[in-house]
Amino acid sequence: MLSNGFHDVPPGKVAAVVTHLEMRARPDARPAPEAAAWPIRRVEAPSLDWYRDLFLRVGGQDWLWFSRMGMGDATLSSILSDPNVHVYAVEKDGQAEGLLELDFREPGDCELAYFGLTPALVGQGVGRALMNFATDAAWSAPIRRFHVHTCTLDSPQALGFYIRSGFTPYRQQIEIAEDPRLTGDLPMEAGPHVPLFLPSAVPPGSKPRGAETAQIDLRYSSRAFF
Ligand SMILES: CC(C)(COP(=O)(O)OP(=O)(O)OC[C@H]1O[C@@H](n2cnc3c(N)ncnc32)[C@H](O)[C@@H]1OP(=O)(O)O)[C@@H](O)C(=O)NCCC(=O)NCCS
Fold this sequence. Notes:
This protein is α+β, with helices and mostly antiparallel strands. It has five helices and seven strands, in the order ββααβββαβαβα. Strands 2-3-4-5-6-1-7 form a seven-stranded mixed β-sheet, sandwiched between helices.
């Protein structure tokens, strides 16, 4: 267990608080505005290029989703072609602008593995329509538990949205990972809400032996809201 207080995150890494949520019975659907009824299409065994492009536009660019961006072709391909992994796209004017991935690989469970919209669809009720679809699809299978996790890198809308959707938080963790902008998995301008600390940087006030104290290099993009 972590002790109380502040804990340094090594330069070159990102840290997030992860909240795990679950539901153990099908909830009532919440109303979604009619205008939000864009088609939701199942994409069986999607091509890696198509999937990575959508993943980047939904979560990579703005929210620093990195897990799938750093995955090799063979691993990603084996997940996406698994018959128990169901990928859906929300289409606006024929273009995929939303991603839903339901993972039924664990018997009795469904994981809402990825859920999100590109900026073209956020905030118009499409998230609610997609969640109603996801909940229905999950509970149409013989599951006992539907679960999801979200983290402090995700949209600040996400946690409240999941709780209103019927999920209950049951666990929190701290996740530390390599900064995906430094590994090359995401572009340098991705995740403008997350400061980038180069691994060579040394925090002000520390006195590395025999070396000059370097400045922390914060590369905020023009879209940053600090
Ligand atoms: C989290 C996310 C999916 C939420 O979707 P969203 O489109 O912003 O949310 P919506 O607009 O559908 O819903 C918000 C609420 O406003 C309501 N609403 C939105 N537009 C409306 C309208 N025009 N008329 C009436 N109600 C409306 C919705 O019905 C919903 O109500 P409820 O939650 O009380 O039932 C979205 O912000 C997103 O994709 N973010 C980026 C990726 C991300 O972080 N994903 C989560 C990762 S874990």
